[in-house]
Amino acid sequence: MRTITAKFGGTSLADAAQFKKVKDIILADPARRFIVVSAPGKRFESDVKVTDLLISAWEKAIAGQNFDPEMGRIRARFEDIARGIGVDMAFEEEIGLISRSLEAMPYRDYALSRGEYLCGKLMARFLGLPFLDPARAICFDREAALDEEATLEALSRALDGLDGAVIAGFYGSRPDGAIQTFSRGGSDVTGALVAQATCSELYENWTDVSGMLAADPRVVDAPDTVDVLSYRELRILSYMGASVLHTDAVKPVQNSGIPINIRNTNRPEDAGTYIVPHLPADHSRRAVTGVAGRKGLSVVQVEKSMVSDGAGFTAVLLDIFKNHRVPFEQCLTGIDTISIVIRSDLFARKRARILKDIRDKLSPDVLNVHENLSMITVVGENVAGADDLTVCLLLAVANEGINISTINQGAGRLNLIIGVHESDYERAIKALYLAIKRTA
Amino acid sequence: MRTITAKFGGTSLADAAQFKKVKDIILADPARRFIVVSAPGKRFESDVKVTDLLISAWEKAIAGQNFDPEMGRIRARFEDIARGIGVDMAFEEEIGLISRSLEAMPYRDYALSRGEYLCGKLMARFLGLPFLDPARAICFDREAALDEEATLEALSRALDGLDGAVIAGFYGSRPDGAIQTFSRGGSDVTGALVAQATCSELYENWTDVSGMLAADPRVVDAPDTVDVLSYRELRILSYMGASVLHTDAVKPVQNSGIPINIRNTNRPEDAGTYIVPHLPADHSRRAVTGVAGRKGLSVVQVEKSMVSDGAGFTAVLLDIFKNHRVPFEQCLTGIDTISIVIRSDLFARKRARILKDIRDKLSPDVLNVHENLSMITVVGENVAGADDLTVCLLLAVANEGINISTINQGAGRLNLIIGVHESDYERAIKALYLAIKRTA
Is the pTM of this model over 0.80? Predict the structure, then answer.
């Protein structure tokens, strides 16, 4: 039996009309057997997500204040959907239980998880499928880290032999029974774990965009959709700020080599973006997959005679940042000079101590901090080396009169990271995107 | 009293005519008081340096063979010079002592040092200055490393109060009295130490070229001479293969901020190249100081999901190279990828073990070795950042149809290092040099 795990995000579940679209999508392919749901999201710009209502309720509960209004709004949202999709389901009891639980023990993760819980129950009734409460199948350890092995075993045990099921996203439980939510990646991680546990041949991630864009649409006008990219390209673009799947959500399916398909619930006819373990060898339609970047970075630049004489100096420098718990984003060592790229917000609080440590331990000839930088990356899995395409891209930026402060292009495929001042960030992204389009 | 330490290299002392040029140079400026000499070098292309004759003699001595012919040729060279410069000095006794010593104990460093020793004695007689045997003033420790503190003290004690002196270069002695030669930098280091100990305001390094060239003359036709460069630029160009002063020779004068002047004994009218602690602020005649490069490099390229999540991965990787005693030349960490540039000859013998260690300790997603690479650097102390000049330079290389495999430009000033295949090395250097000339 073909198996697809399909995860639907908050906007895909915002109201009854969206629920109906989801059902249509699921019925369109019998392989869509395991359905993972988020909590209902915004119906319109100024709307409030169910999860945000739950946070408000919890904040009032822990402050000893009345949170009936919030619970009332949540109940109304679910009842509204139930009515619209013709499901006879009363939420009075469920909402009452949540309220009483929060009064007895205002526990944050429990409160936060109830949106997915209720949404999953409702969707299961709507689809006529069994509901799986992930509290019984997504396992965290005592330190609140996901226990992958236990999770896959529990999910397999719970889902084996079922033709289909609806699973609530976003949470699981710890060995002590307490609800635990994912700190990063949310329901996307649940979906990826279910896809892995059920040996799905595809993990569909239904959202409100028709796939991943080659650049940030807030910066570039109507950027192209990327039809296919590799896990690695996704990680890089996601790391650099492209708002797509979180790394944590990619790991489980990547481990099993399951492709991901990002789809648009509102435009199911669009093919969306495929994320695959390896790009097909003949995939040379476009050399460059996308451009993304991050602001808020600083560079600590250390100069010392013959840094490159051995690994010692660099190792000591990296250790200093590690000891201060400031992870570095990039490290470039040349002759006599090392540039360490770090997040400005993490650096700011520890700046004086880190610089003092560097002076004390390394007696550098020069120690500079360059601030207000942004880093921009251009990835292209199928472009070997930094050949003339790299130069083309750099030229496109330079032709805009933008100063490039750092250039980092390692061996292998196109992996270019350039540093520009934050004030040049948007212009540089635009210039790179246009250059990519020209070379396509 | 103004004080200059002047060091003369082997070709400046190859025969009587060269000795006369040296004397003229010294007499032309009374500040040239402390004179450091190498051993006589080649008089013509197929000639043999005195030091190479000494190596041959030692090799025969240690093999128990007769080395009279070598000692005869050495004696003839010195007697030839003495006769030509009108100095009445017999070498029979000195050469006899060296021969008997080598028979009794064929000790390599002793043999090697005798060229400078004899040359120093002859030059002292010629100039009418006292001779200082560095065995009494250049101090090494038990591990054969230079003891800078003891050396500066001994040199000061030996030279204080003298109007001038001739010092033999290249060697000193260990605490046990044995002669010890410099493993790197040779007589240039002696000269720098003498300059520091005598508080010279200038360290002149007399050779057979009119200063440092902006590129390798074997690759580029008649490159320009660099009029002034910083210690740091010198180190970088020297590290990258420009045949100038060794780093070890720069350290002592750099510590004291003494400028170096590289001069041509055969063209004393040329100003040569000045090497200074810091470039004068108004020195903007040329943006780029020079281009240099090295072949015989490899890149180990490691890919692993979210390398940049913390300092751990890079530190472990650098440790592996350190443990195998393969110093890295460059380290570029990006997102998911690290490129380590290393010398191919050092890597070759340990390749299998290093790659196994990387696989065992880091389980990388991708592990590639790129070989037969060369690295080319362009330095320009007064160029801030990698602005459009960097792009210009990269474009010049790309326009030659040369693939650039790695690009490393850290923060701060122009510090560009690019990797190209060895077969493209000469063309890339030429292209960069011409681009530099165009922007000058």
Answer: no
